[in-house]
User: Fold this.
Amino acid sequence: MTNVVSFERRGEIAVITVQNPPVNALSHAVRLGLGAAFDRAETEEGIRAAVLAGAGRAFIAGADIKEFGKAPQEPHLPDLCDRIEASPLVVVAAMHGVSLGGGLEVALSAHYRIADPGAKVGLPEVHLGLLPGAGGTQRLPRLTGAQAAIDMITSGRHVGAQEAKALGIIDEIASGDPVEVGVGYALRLLEQGAPRRPVSAMPAPAALDWDGVYDQVLRRGRGQIAPATAVRAVQAASEQPFAEGIKTERALFFELMQTDQRQGMIHAFFSERAVSNLPELAGVAPRNLAHIGVIGGGTMGAGIATAALLAGLPVVLLEMSHEAAEAAKARIAGNLAGALKRGKISQEQHDAILDQALTLATTYDSLADVDMVIEAVFEEMDVKKAVFAKLDAVCKPGAILASNTSYLDVNEIAASTSRPADVLGLHFFSPAHVMKLLEVVVPDDTAADVVATGFALGKRLGKVAVRAGVCDGFIGNRILSTYRTAADHMILDGASPFQIDQALVAFGFAMGPYEVADLAGLDIGWAMRKRLAPTRDPRERIGDYPDRLCEGGHFGQKTGKGFYIYAPGQRGGTPNPEVLDLITAERAAKGITPRTFTDAQIIRRYMAAMVNEAAKVVGEGIARRPLDVDMTLLFGYGFPRYRGGPLKWADITGLAGILSDIKDFAKEDPYFWQPAPLLEQLVSEGRSFDDLNKAAG
Ligand code: 3HC
Ligand code: NAI
Assistant:
């Protein structure tokens, strides 16, 4: 066969094994190899059954995603699946690890399926902006019924072996070497005289209220089209003969293949993996990380401690007083109760974490032995420096001293210690035990193995870690404050915060910027405005109506009132009419005649500001690659995954148009709308942000 598919004969059984590490993706060579292996099995004298298995860690993880967007090469996967199903042999799939996408579709083309107890199956194509395109939408519902198939296909979730058996996807569960398990099963089937059992010949699934299901899935997708489109494919399984249903599935698959959403999702898939892969860290071993300290047990400190404890790291938490330490423990206990409720930890683990793994402290000597300390005290330089001076005095040599500061200069913090090589920023996002993003902020003198340890911690905590340079706000908050400012300007000029939030949610953001501001606490922006006021350029336009809210003690969700009013026990808020009065008053005081903005205009300005600042962040080397910005916005700021990230969105939308918008806006406000040199350069060279990603390897 080919070197990616092996063929072995065991008496009357042909064993066909895919060997395409790391996850046996169905590349062109694998498809060719599988076809050839079945040809051989069917032509060799005396073979009655074929066992299909995967070598290494998985059965088959799906189509080879790297081939998407290129011209498809024969044999096409759906044809290969039909060819396997039509084999005169009894075909058994012996599954272990994951069988995903095309991998499960190949398995569904076998006549019988047996799986390891730890096996997982799924059709995750929607996460790539696609739907199953090799018969999955036609065969799965014939085994499970339409409702379960729709649940699996539209969520893309992985289903464990037990559930897969209960759903009728697999026939048997057995542990052991997949080839041996498969051969044993095939022998039993032959002995029993079990017939070939093509799924395509099974009865079509019963009908559902297709339009109702479609609408529901479309709404849930928040602008993502693939899941809803997949509903139509399953509908075809119910309404059309198998061969016609396959044609419908194929047509819908190719429709999705042409979409921007598919490009965005696949960019996100590869960038999510590339983001922590930094050439400068190749071969750099991280320092030992067995025990960590957290200073400050407020919102962030408690969240960071929870994340570490859930990842099995013991934590010493230092607070200013016993009362504050106990309050921090109560916050952590609250977080852990949530994890217990969601089944993430058992009662025993929960108790062990609180009673043994977490230690409370009020004196610095308790931190003498930890490998890393993460500081999460108040956002004030003097307070941080005082903490770092004490850490410098007590922590063992080689201990890493990290700050969770949102905006402060980590170089200045590092320089205030006698060991700047051991200092870095670890910027978590609230709630820190839930949000996936971790910015690893690298000051000038930090040692490479300290940076590597920051990334190792990120991985251990299940975070997406992004390298950021030092500047006001690093990657994410710096870009956030620019696009927030663009939104604030639109409010001064006539838009309402509620319209802006709605337009951006319709664009696909998890929340609008003013809902986010209420959630984060309006006091944060207020403090920042006060901090920056003395050095503010007089040309900068700034709305000060939110200060009036803060002066009245309204900080957003935590005080029950901000841009929105929050009734106790209710999710989400209702628009606060006082905000509109404050805005009207400020416009009048500034002599601004309000104008209207359409939702499309709001998005154009907001995105232009985001892309422009992101281009500056990349141009200045604060982010190494455009994809680092994309992943920051995706995992920390609710940017819609199906758009890939702001710079992928910019590539798809067209850089020249965005630059021309920025130049237009600059006619009104040349101070705010200064085009990023990198954006101008890319436009003049006819290159894209993705070209920069590729050039970075
Ligand atoms: N094609 C190409 N490469 C793939 C791949 C695929 N389907 N799946 C994983 N890889 C690569 C990853 O990019 C990564 O490469 P790298 O080492 O160079 O970064 C490597 O395999 C290992 O992957 P992970 O780091 O993600 O390893 P994990 O163990 O964490 O996860 C996995 C393994 C669960 C298989 C995960 O990679 C995954 O979910 N893969 C995608 C599965 C998928 O979406 N399949 C459907 C494909 S679409 C399809 O089949 C269309 C069909 O219906 C026609
Ligand atoms: P917070 O006010 O909720 O908690 C700060 C805690 O630090 C308090 O419990 C306080 O008692 C304790 N503390 C203050 N000085 C101390 C000292 N000298 N020694 C020991 N403990 C001390 O603040 P929050 O929101 O947790 O923020 C902490 C840090 O995290 C800040 O630097 C902030 O900028 C940053 N951050 C905040 C985010 C957020 O969304 N709240 C997000 C990311 C970073």
In short: The mean pLDDT is 96. The first strand starts at residue 5 and ends at 10.
